Each structure stands twice: as structure tokens, then as C-alpha cells.
Amino acid sequence: QDCIEVVHRAGGVASLAHPTWLTEPERLLAELVDAGLDGIETYYGAYDDATVEWLRGLAETYDLVPTGGTDFHGFPGLTHSDLGARFLPPECLAELERRAEARKQQQA
Q1: Strand arrangement of the beta sheet that strand 15-16 belongs to
Q2: pLDDT tens per residue, range 68-98
Q3: Helix (H, G, I), strand (E, B), or coil: what is residue 97?
Q4: Full 3-state SS string of 44-83
Q5: pTM score
Q6: Is residue 30 helix, strand or coil?
Q7: Chain centroid to CA 19: how far?
Q8: How far is CA 98 from CA 8, 39, 92, 104, in A?
Q9: What is the pLDDT of residues 9-65, one digit of tens each?
């Protein structure tokens, strides 16, 4: 909760990375959404289509922006996929930008 607040004060949007690593992601999501969470990592290099669809459903349920990443670190064995290997729909970025701008306006 403190991290979300710090990110928001800095003008950013907060997204939960690696939700599949959590034991009970849906229980934690409810708490984080109450704290102002903006997004959930949905498009990730190691996720299969079924996992992406499950996470898209969670994003919709909790009004979160689906976000994405590759975890590309440039070292063999530390990469789940290459840069650019995971598609993130452009509307996801647009919604993150919209939410950041709206928060900025609220803080002004």
C-alpha cells in the first residue's frame, strides 16, 4: 500500500508484477485495489494463452489496466522472452496514460 502511494505521488501508475507468483492473488488484489492499484501484469513472456486470459479476466473484474513485460535482462538463462516478443495492446498504454493524467489533475 505504501508503494502504491509513493508511485502515485511521483505521478506514476502502479501495476502488480508477476501475479502468478502469489499464493492467493485474488485475495491480495482486493486489498491492493482498495489502496489504488492501477494495473496487473497480464502480458508476460512466460505466460501461456490461458494464463493471459485468466489475468485479463482479473483485470476486468477489478478495473485494472492489463500491463506487460518480458523481464528481459540480456543474460542467457535470466530471460523469459526477448524484447518485443510479447505484444501489449496499444489501448493498455493509452489507459495507463489516461489514469496517470487523471491522477495528476486530482492532485493539482
Answers
A1: 15-16, 39-44, 65-69
A2: 876 666 666 665 666 666 678 889 999 999 9
A3: helix
A4: ECCCCHHHHHHHHHHHHHCCCEEEEECCCCCCCCCCCCCC
A5: 0.85
A6: helix
A7: 9
A8: 13, 12, 10, 10
A9: 888 999 999 999 899 888 899 999 999 999 999 998 888 999 999 999 999 999 999
Nearest to 21 by CA among 62, 49, 51: 51
Residue 37's CB is within 10 A of a number of other CB atoms, namely: 24
Q: Which long-range contacts (CB under 8 A, 24 or more apart) does 97-101 make?
A: 99/13, 99/38, 99/65, 100/11, 100/12, 100/13
- Report CA Rg, the chain: 14
Please name every residue paired with 15 in a beta bridge, in sequence order, or none if there are none.
39
Q: Please state the separation of Cα 33 from the chain's center in Å.
A: 12
